[in-house]
Amino acid sequence: MVSRKNTDERYVIREATEDDLPVLVEFLAKLALHVAGAQPQSLKEDERDRLLAVLHSSLTAANKQLVVAEVPGAGLVAMGYIYVLHNQGIWEQTSHVEYRSGVIDDVWVEPDFRKLGIFRAILRRLVAFAESRGAYELILEYSASNKEAKAAWTRLGFKTIGVRAAAFTTSVQEVLADRQ
Ligand SMILES: CC(C)(COP(=O)(O)OP(=O)(O)OC[C@H]1O[C@@H](n2cnc3c(N)ncnc32)[C@H](O)[C@@H]1OP(=O)(O)O)[C@@H](O)C(=O)NCCC(=O)NCCS
C-alpha cells in the first residue's frame, strides 16, 4: 500500500505504452461496471478487442494523450485520458476563430490507491497536454449517481454546467404515442 506521505516519490506518472493496454482495458471494464453499479463480470472477447483498438489509436494520435500511474512493485494503478477537439464558432465572426476544448475521459484509480493524490497528479499531466495543444477549456462527463466523481471534480475546480439526459428510443416513442 502506498503511504500518504511522499506519494509523489512512490508512483510514476507517464504516458501509456502499448504494453500497458491489456491492464488499461481491465480498468475501463471496471469503470463501466462502477458507473453502471453492476457486479464484477468478465469482459467478452470481442469487447476486449474493441477497447484495445480504441486505446491503441490514442497512443499515436497528435490530439490525444493516455496517461497512467505506476507504483513500483504494484504495477499500473490508474489511468486518465484526454483528447483535444476543434470547434468552429457558428456565429458570424469578424475574424476566423477556432475553439479548442480538452475532453477528459476514462479516469480510473484502483480502489487501494485512492485519495493519495494520484488522480490530481494525472490531471496535472492532462492539463499540461491540453495547454500545449491550445485548448482553452476542459470538459468532462460523469454519471449523476457517481458521488465520488462529483466530489473529486469539484475539488479539482470543475463546475457542473449541464445535465445529459438519456432515454430508450422505445420509451420516447411510447410517450409521444400517448398524445397523437
Ligand atoms: C474519482 C477518482 C478518479 C479520484 O481519484 P483519486 O486518486 O482518489 O483522487 P485524488 O486523491 O487525486 O483526489 C483529488 C481531489 O479529489 C478529492 N476526492 C477524491 N476522492 C474523493 C471522494 N471520494 N470524496 C470527496 N473528495 C474526494 C480529494 O480530496 C482531492 O482534493 P484535495 O487535493 O483538494 O484534497 C477515483 O475515486 C476513482 O477512480 N473513482 C472510480 C472511477 C470514477 O468515478 N471515475 C470518474 C469518472 S468521471
From TrEMBL:
Pfam families: Acetyltransf_1 (PF00583)
Keywords: Acyltransferase, Ribonucleoprotein, Ribosomal protein, Transferase
Matches recorded under PROSITE patterns: GNAT
Protein name (database record): Ribosomal protein S18 acetylase RimI
Stretches that traverse the bilayer: none
GO cellular component, one term: ribosome
Originating organism: Marinobacter daqiaonensis
N-terminal signal peptide: none
GO molecular function terms noted in the UniProt entry: acyltransferase activity, transferring groups other than amino-acyl groups
Residues in N-acetyltransferase domain copies: 11-179
CDD domains xrefs: NAT_SF
